Structure to design on (271 residues):
């Protein structure tokens, strides 16, 4: 007769149901987070089992439950799993409830203190951008903006940070339908030049400009992107052009670190 397991000590409590439920929830979240990785498009039972060191039977129960709630979908041909529509619903709901001004307030303060220049927040209203907030440094000569002022998207770094990351059809509609006015002598209005600059902005992740919206000014700007990779808002660091010009790369590095962190909170994944 095989040996029997020793009985639990007298008075020892049985494992709580709540702890088992929590363990199951943690495993399900671990599975979901595998699909949230930028490099992942689909996964099979064996891959998930190997990644998380879980028995295949356990993985199968988890993914079946997640499919039942539309967090995952099974491709009947490949027998592999993909993200389901519930992710899109939750991401959209979260995005709609986020107050971008509250979300960025501490970042604007930190940017201004770190760079000793003005930091600004812009949102898009149609084919214009609008200043929503700013933080100015404690120094004698500064650049200050008027919150609420509207500007076209083709003039200045904040506008171009919006325009460069819009879907291609919206970008082309802007260039086709909007009068490309010159706000200063430095404002670019040639369509081909603009398109090339927008490609450059999208590739490096930020825009910079000097005197395009206001003579003597300089700015570096980067977008906040949502789960659909669309620009929700733009943050910039700006000041007198002669101070900004030699610091473009330095300011861009500081700015991108902050904007990418906020974009991640908005659901953006750099694929």
């Amino acid at each position: 007769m095989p040996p029997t397991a020793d009985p639990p000590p007298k008075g020892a409590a049985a494992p709580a149901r709540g702890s088992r439920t929590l363990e199951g929830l943690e495993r399900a979240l671990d599975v979901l987070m595998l699909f949230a990785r930028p490099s992942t498009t689909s996964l099979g039972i064996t891959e998930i089992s190997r990644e998380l060191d879980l028995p295949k039977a356990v993985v199968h129960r988890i993914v079946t439950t997640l499919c039942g709630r539309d967090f995952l979908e099974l491709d009947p041909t490949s027998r592999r799993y993909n993200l389901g529509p519930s992710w899109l619903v939750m991401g959209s709901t979260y995005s709609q409830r986020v107050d971008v001004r509250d979300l960025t307030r501490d970042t604007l303060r930190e940017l201004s203190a770190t760079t000793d220049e003005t930091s600004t927040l812009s949102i898009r209203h149609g084919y214009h951008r609008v200043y929503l907030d700013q933080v100015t440094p404690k120094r004698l000569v500064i650049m200050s903006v008027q919150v609420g002022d509207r500007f076209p998207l083709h003039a200045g770094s904040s506008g171009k940070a919006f325009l460069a990351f819009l879907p291609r059809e919206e970008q082309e509609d802007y260039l086709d339908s909007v009068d490309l006015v010159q706000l200063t002598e430095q404002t670019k209005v040639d369509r081909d030049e603009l398109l090339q600059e927008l490609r450059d902005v999208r590739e490096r992740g930020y825009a910079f400009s000097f005197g395009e919206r206001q003579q003597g000014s300089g700015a570096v700007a980067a977008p906040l992107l949502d789960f659909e990779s669309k620009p929700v808002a733009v943050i910039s660091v700006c000041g007198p052009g002669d101070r900004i010009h030699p610091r473009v790369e330095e300011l861009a590095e500081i700015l991108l670190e902050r904007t990418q962190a906020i974009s991640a909170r908005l659901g953006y994944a750099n694929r």
